[in-house]
Specification:
single chain; 238 residues; alpha/beta; 6-stranded mixed β-sheet; two-stranded antiparallel sheet; 9 helices; 10 strands; 19% strand; binds adenosine-5'-diphosphate; binds magnesium ion
C-alpha cells in the first residue's frame, strides 16, 4: 500500500504479510509511519493505492471501499490506542460488551459471561461495575484490551499501548500483552520499549521515512552488526 498526506508519502509501497499466531513489533523513529501503517491495516486511514486482504476479504484500495467492507476489516483487526479511549459514561463491563452486543449482534447474556471472563484474564474481576474514571491508567488500558478481545478479531493492533502510562503501571499492561502473545494471539504492536520487543516479539519491523528498513526475526534485529542506522537507533533508545 501507498499512503499520502498532502503530497507527502507517509507509506512508500509497503508490502507485508502477517501470519496467524505471530507477535510483530514495529519500531522506528517518531514520524516514520508506524501509526499510519497500523491505521491503514485497520482502515482508520485509507491508502490511496494498494490492496488489503484478511482471509477471504480482498480489497483493492485504488477503488472505493464500501462501508460494509470497512466494517469487516475493522472487526477482524481490533485496535488498542495509546489513550485507552473507553466510553466514559459506561461501566467497565458495559465497555467490554458494547461491541459484541451492538456490532456483532450477539446474545447479551452470553456476552456478559464472556466479558467477565476477559476481565478476569486481565486481572480486573473486581472492577466490572466501576467507571473508567475510577481506574488507574494501567487498569483502563487493560479494560481496553479486554474490549478488543471481546470482538474476537483475527489480529490485535496496539499503537504505543503503554506510552501514556507511568513506568510502574506500564509493567502490568506489558504482562497482559506478553500473556496474549504466549497464548498465540496474532498481534502487531508499535512500541518504543526495546526490552519488551526483545522479550516478546517473534518478528521486528523497523520503519523509517515510510519504508521498511528491517523485517525479520527479533534476534537478528538486535544482533545486527551491518546496518548502521539500526545500530544507532538501538543505541539512541538505551
Ligand atoms: P509515527 O507513528 O511513526 O510517529 P505517523 O504514522 O504518525 O508516524 O506519521 C508519519 C508521517 O505522516 C509523519 O510525517 C506525519 O507528520 C504524517 N501524518 C500522519 N498523520 C497525518 C495526518 N492525519 N495528516 C497529515 N500528515 C500526517
Ligand atoms: Mg505514532
Amino acid at each position: 500500500m501507498h499512503k499520502f498526506f498532502d503530497g507527502h508519502e507517509a507509506l512508500k509501497n509497503i508490502n507485508l504479510t502477517f501470519n496467524k499466531g505471530e507477535t510483530t513489533v514495529i519500531l522506528g523513529p517518531s514520524g516514520s509511519g508506524k501509526s499510519t501503517l497500523l491505521r491503514c491495516i485497520n482502515l482508520l486511514e485509507t491508502p490511496e493505492r494498494g490492496t488489503l486482504s484478511i482471509d477471504d476479504i480482498h480489497l483493492d484500495l485504488s477503488g472505493s471501499v464500501s462501508k460494509k467492507e470497512r466494517l469487516a476489516i475493522r472487526q477482524n483487526t481490533a485496535m488498542v490506542f495509546q489513550s485507552f479511549n473507553l466510553f466514559p459514561h459506561m461501566k467497565v463491563l458495559e465497555n467490554v460488551i458494547e461491541g459484541p452486543v451492538t456490532v456483532l449482534k450477539k446474545e447479551r447474556i452470553a456476552v456478559i459471561e464472556k466479558g467477565k471472563m476477559l476481565l478476569a484474564k486481565v486481572g480486573l474481576s473486581h472492577k466490572t461495575e466501576s467507571y473508567p474514571s475510577q481506574l488507574s491508567g494501567g487498569q483502563q488500558q487493560r479494560v481496553a484490551i479486554a474490549r478488543a478481545l471481546a470482538m474476537e478479531p483475527k489480529f490485535l493492533l496496539f499503537d504505543e499501548p503503554t506510552s501514556a502510562l507511568d513506568p510502574e503501571l506500564e509493567g502490568e499492561v506489558l504482562k497482559v500483552l506478553k500473556d496474549l502473545s504466549e497464548e498465540g494471539k496474532s498481534m502487531i504492536i508499535v512500541t518504543h520499549n526495546l526490552n519488551f520487543a526483545k522479550e516478546v516479539a517473534d518478528r521486528i519491523l523497523f520503519l523509517e521515512n515510510g519504508e521498511i528498513l528491517f523485517d525479520g526475526e527479533t534476534k537478528k534485529f538486535f544482533d545486527n552488526k551491518e546496518n548502521d542506522r539500526i545500530q544507532s537507533f538501538i543505541q539512541s533508545m538505551q
